[in-house]
Amino acid sequence: MSSISHIIHAHVRDIGFPVRRLLPAAEVRTVGPFVFFDHMGPFTFPSEGSTGDVRPHPHIGLATVTYLFSGAMVHRDSLGSVQRITPGDINWMTSGRGITHSERVPEDIRQQGIAVQGLQMWVALPQKDEETAPGFWHYPEADLPLVKLNGATCHVLVGTAFGQTSPVKTHSDTLYVSVKLAAQAHIQVAPDVAERAIYIISGALAVDGETIEQGTLVALKPEITVTVVAQSDTTFMLLGGEPLDGPRFLWWNFVASTKERIENAKAAWKLQQDDVFPPVPGETEFIPLPER
Q1: Tens digits of per-residue pLDDT, 146-172?
Q2: What number of other Cβ atoms are within 10 A of residue 148's Cβ?
Q3: 143 lies in a domain?
Q4: Which helix (H) or strand (E) holds 110?
Q5: Rg (CA), the chain
Q6: Using one digit for the tens of pLDDT, what is the confidence trace for 27-82?
Q7: What is the separation of C-alpha 116 from the centre of its chain, rounded to a whole number of angstroms?
Q8: How far is residue 232's CA from residue 212's CA, in Å, rounded to a whole number?
Q9: What pLDDT is recorded for position 15?
């Protein structure tokens, strides 16, 4: 019996540069608390101009999780945080009742022609925490546990895996691990959390004898230990956690358990209500509310 419940292929979206979107998908809306999953790049941005810069925009009801494989980004938010994100770091921003932030490509990355590649994830907050105060935390690569097994290097980004626990603080049981697996090596994915999925960054994996190629998200059945085998040198992400405590509505950059929260956030951003979405210090631009 196969341990695969769904195989999800990315849809390419243009947000000023191409990204591959995995969640939400028609087959699987969420994996644990993860409600949104974009794979950006690798993409080399023009040395001049602002292509790739994401101007200030709002969020509610979620935490953004940024992880890079190459290049760098600069995060700024309405709390006054300014943080350069480099490969291997975890940037965790909790929007709660409301936050504004921007993400821009650093000038040195543009000038040197360094490709940027990374993942942008959204984790929905539990209903009891949807109106929590916003917050921002940065965890350098060196602070995140590294586990080496036979032919495998596992970077435990969030949660507990392979006997190690990440220092990243979450509002619900969340799992997020980056794994590098040498060709023909194998690793077992234990059923430590209720919902799990694997996403192939590069290379290919055999899951129950079925080859899963780069750019594919595989949702796994619960309560089964799954053995995966690298068909070549492979990098993949393991993600999941406890199921959400009810359905979520997603509209633009907003996530909420009720449509009322979404409508209130839309009105606040349209009116530029500083008490809900304060401006980002040092920024003068913003992304207008979509007319849809």
Answers
A1: 999 999 999 999 999 999 999 999 999
A2: 10
A3: yes
A4: helix 107-111
A5: 19
A6: 999 999 999 999 999 999 999 999 999 999 999 999 999 999 999 999 999 999 99
A7: 15
A8: 11
A9: 80
Q: Is residue 205 a part of any domain in this protein?
A: yes
- Can you read off the two tokens belonging to residue 158? 């969030």
* Number of domain units in the chain: 1
Q: Please say whether the beta carbons of 221 and 198 come within 8 A.
A: no
Under 8 Å between Cβ of 237 and 243:
no
Residues in a beta bridge with 199: 217, 237
Q: How far is CA 35 from the centre of its chain?
A: 9
Report yes or no on 141 lying in a domain: yes
Q: Hey, is 261 helix, strand or coil?
A: helix
The proportion of the chain whose per-residue pLDDT surpasses 90, expressed as a percent, equals 96
Q: What is the CATH number of the domain that holds 166?
A: 2.60.120.10
Confidence class of residue 104 from pLDDT cuts 50, 70 and 90?
very high
Q: How far apart are CA 137 and CA 239, in angstroms?
A: 20
CA 146 to chain centre: 19
Q: In this structure, what token pair is assigned to residue 197? A: 């999925």
Q: Which range marks the domain in which residue 149 is found?
A: 4-241
Residue 163, domain member (yes or no)? yes
Strands of the 186-189 sheet, one edge to the other: 186-189, 226-230, 204-207, 210-213
Q: The tokens of 104 are what?
A: 């821009």
Residue identified by tokens 């690798």 is 42
The C-alpha atoms of residue 41 and residue 52 are separated, in whole angstroms, by: 11
Q: Which of 199, 177, 192 is nearest to 23 (CA)?
A: 199
* CA 138 to mean position of chain CA atoms: 14
